[in-house]
Amino acid sequence: xxxxxxxxxxxxxxxxxxxxxxxxxxxxxxxxxxxxxxxxxxxxxxxxxxxxxxxxxxxxxxxxxxxxxxxxxxxxxxxxxxxxxxxxxxxxxxxxxxxxxxxxxxxxxxxxxxxxxxxxxxxxxxxxxxxxxxxxxxxxxxxxxxxxxxxxxxxxxxxxxxxxxxxxxxxxxxxxxxxxxxxxxxxxxxxxxxxxxxxxxxxxxxxxxxxxxxxxxxxxxxxxxxxxxxxxxxxxxxxxxxxxxxxxxxxxxxxxxxxxxxxxxxxxxxxxxxxxxxxxxxxxxxxxxxxxxxxxxxxxxxxxxxxxxxxxxx
Length: 314
Hints:
disordered N terminus
């Protein structure tokens, strides 16, 4: 159990500070009565406290000292990164202007669907639902649950926590760096100029490189593919489509999406190594994901979650 769910003892709640009888009472000579609104407030306060405590402990786990040494990085990733950088430079001087001119003359029946599809590359499309899942898992975790249930919740929390960090961190990095670089988008100016830069101007029109959508899409492809390898073809097809739409609707140069892809891939891979070094989600020796909870095990723990006492009573 500990091998596959190493965080099982991490996300635990503190003792409840409220009891069912801690609400508002009145006395008219009879036995004290507890009003349900006060009990509801106490339960809600206990739930918030438990959720915050579990989230705080999860953050501490991510920053704990390294417990294993992942394999050394060989030359292949460095060669691939160097080749991508060379392709970016070549695109700036040889392809970007022509691609922008091509995109300007595309028919509306192609650009309108691309404008809708490209929204699926927003980081919020991943981070919001994953964040909600993490909040729910943090609210569910409690010491009163059976050990198997706690282990399963911890395993799920670690996996979704990895997805949140692996997608969110490269996207955050991209958001800052693109505004520091200050490259003009293809539609800025009467004629396209791939070499138009205004560093540190912090305007959306000068936030073209690297592409945030490309960063999010490739980071998601790497992160999701790392946990569920069978999803890799689907996720990389998704990433390629998102990158293509950025050029089709003329808001990014080809070199921008290549730069975003580089940031997304490197960022997600670095986060995976960070988790593996702390024995979270991945084996440290080969970076494979731990076996995930099966549907049978998920169904087996549902009764223990449904039969648990109220937060204020725990």
